[in-house]
């Protein structure tokens, strides 16, 4: 089965823009409904697609937080180049972390951080999330449960280097968070494991 990878989107709706950022193993599709809502309410919404996301797990493992952060910076620059002066940023999970990082790296009008990791005592939720991503992707490829179980062995310890780098990102944001001067809205669920 041919799988069509998710694409970035730009929904033009007004002079003010909101940069929408998805999470680890996620895609621009995760923030698409929010993007349409913003467009209907006179905001322009733009969501990049991080390198390695929405494609095969092997490709995801060839990328890391530095690549994804560059995607965020490129997306911000893209909105600036389109003429948007008022840019807010909203992100989910890893996207929330990058939203906060953008808040002390670039001028933004406001920040929404949803289910954002602020500490990582255990990497097990990220590993479990990665394994779910691999398993679901293999299902989309039309693999049988037996084939999937066999192929999962190759990914058993795969994201460990990425997890170490994600911890570094969290530590950087925690150490610089007092440099954010834009308004911040934090959305966190009761059962969020961060």
UniProtKB/TrEMBL annotation:
Residues 15-130 form the Serine aminopeptidase S33 domain. The keyword Hydrolase applies. It holds the Pfam family Hydrolase_4. One of its GO terms (molecular function) is carboxylesterase activity. The keyword Hydrolase applies. Keywords: Hydrolase. Its EC number is 3.1.1.1. It comes from the Bacteria. This is Carboxylesterase. The lineage of its organism: Bacteria, Bacillati, Bacillota, Bacilli, Bacillales.
